[in-house]
Amino acid sequence: MITKIYISRKLESLVSKSAIKAEDKVHDNPLGKWNATIFYVSHKKCLMITNNNAIYTVILDRIKTSDFSDLSKIFAETLFEQLLADDIKIDKSILLSMIGKVELFETDNDKSVIGIQNSVLPYVEDWKYEFGHIDNWPFREINRRINEIPYKQIEWLLPKEKMKLELNLKSV
Questions:
Q1: CA-based, 20 to 30 A from 72: which of 5, 21, 82, 123?
Q2: Residue (of 57, 66, 46, 56) closest to 131 by Cα position
Q3: What are phi and psi for residue 37, nearest 5 degrees?
Q4: pLDDT (tens digit, 9 = 90+) per residue, 76-96?
Q5: How many independent structural domains does the chain possess?
Q6: Order of all β-strands in the sheet with 44-51
Q7: What is the structure's pLDDT at 171?
Q8: Whole-angstrom distance, CA of residue 48 vs CA of residue 64
């Protein structure tokens, strides 16, 4: 199984060209595709990765360029922790098999997901004042807040509710 993450142009400049795959139109992952963008907190890189089906967001904090070689593990661990923080129970081995290997692709210009990510980024600016230095940021709590914003694209469900439905439908 392959999890496809389409990265923003800003993020493309930070990732080695050899790590970015050519476009592949086949989306066979049960969770669908993901889109990623970058933002900074206290001069540290953070990735906001959003699922296209559920509008479910996962934040990877303190990412270094060397972390992209181990992105599959980092993404899977962070997603599992975030699902637990959002009270979504799933067996870790099932989640790992659903995610499989993470591969990065050039942006697909999905305006819907990019628009949602851009609408969340101003909150990040507010949280910089609320929490200060990156060491004070409760990322799972912040992520929980993001996943409790309802969206029209998912019929006014919360992303965490939609992700729970996606996981239950796919893991049965």
A1: 123
A2: 46
A3: -135, 170
A4: 999 999 999 999 999 999 999
A5: 1
A6: 20-21, 101-105, 2-7, 34-41, 44-51, 57-63
A7: 52
A8: 14
Residue pLDDT, tens place only, 99-152: 999 999 999 999 999 999 999 999 999 999 999 999 999 999 999 999 999 999
Tokens of 129: 């004042």
| Residue whose entry in the numeric block shows the structure tokens 């993450």 | 5
Tokens of residue 135, six digits: 């060491």
| Amino acid (1-letter code) at residue 70 | D
Domain that holds residue 111: 2-171
And the tokens for 164?
């729970």
Taking each helix axis from N to C terminus, what angle separates 159-171 and 92-99, rounded to the nearest 10 degrees? 90
Element spanning 103, H or E: strand 101-105
- Tell me, what amino acid is at 160? K
Cα separation, 4 vs 21, whole angstroms: 10
Backbone angles phi, psi at 149, to 5 degrees: -100, 120
Q: How far apart are CA 74 and CA 129, in angstroms?
A: 27
CA dihedral 142, 78, 32, 104 (to 10 degrees): 110
Q: How far is 33 from 21, CA to CA, in rounded Å? A: 14
